[in-house]
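Practice record 12: protein with 3,4-dihydroxyphenylalanine.
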Amino acid sequence: MEIIDLKTLKIEANKEIDNTADLKSLDDIDKKYLGKKGELTRILRSLQILPKEKRANMGKAANEVKNVLKQKIEIKRKEIGKDVIIADKERIDATRPGKAPIQGHLHILTQTRREVEEIFRSMGFEVAEGPEVENEWYNFDALNIPKNHPARDVWDTFWLKSAKERLLLRTHTSPVQIHYMETHKPPLRIIVPGNVFRHEATDQRHEFQLFQVEGLMVDKDISVPNFKAIVGEFFRRFFNKNMGFRLRPDFFPFTEPSFDIGMTCLICEGKGCQLCKGSGFLEVAGAGMVHPNVFKASGVDPKKWKGWAFGFGLDRLAMMKYKINDVRLFRSGDMRFLNQF
Ligand code: DAH
């Protein structure tokens, strides 16, 4: 046995280890060189027959090769092992039940808006929209609320900085009555759903942003009984039952006479609770017969045409229908609330 042989053996073994990719053949290499009958073991055993001087040198060299190979095999074993674990992790089992993607759904106010639109459409109303940023004319003057009139205080809002004219976030959907009548000739029936904004201290019933549905019907012989019939039918369909409601005299500059629409508070079924301030009724809309000045401002002849209008708080309708006792929940972004609907 020569050192040369040992060198060749080392080179061969190294090559084989490098080229292995699985544990089984690595075990075979281990056995082939380092096993009981392995090539290196045989060399080590055969040392006894060598003369003493040679034996020491050869022994040292052979042991070195043995250790190097052993180490290398161990390292390789770990490497292959790691790959096996990773491969295991990355394996795709197409038969496993999948993870369902989280699906969004329509916000409860959007659902309510669509329900309301559907009911009015079926009664011959068209759905109209208008801008959320208004000027003073549309939000106030055209609605018979002149500058410095105290009624403007009721609709305090957010003013926008603009060079040309005073712009504001609309405080109600009523300006769309004007926009619509400017461009459409009576007879007409519209509802106008949309966001409105108020400078408002928030509480259980009030928000600085709310959703209104304006209604406007203009024809030759329009009267309060027409109005009551339509609102009664709307309530019946929206709440799926005959709903009692009451009209009380109120004041709005753009209607004469004016009233507010109160309905039995469905949170407490009329018994009185914190939301309805113990009255058993909740105001859900303002309404009235269109004021002649509003017709004039929109280019409609008040001698020829009559009309009624209302402005429902959609938030409040949804609160009643779904028994939600705090208006602030709608825009809270709290998924625990939103996922209930
Ligand atoms: N715009 C009123 C508000 O926001 C509500 C209202 C009252 C609308 C009477 C109307 C109406 O159309 O006729 O408080």
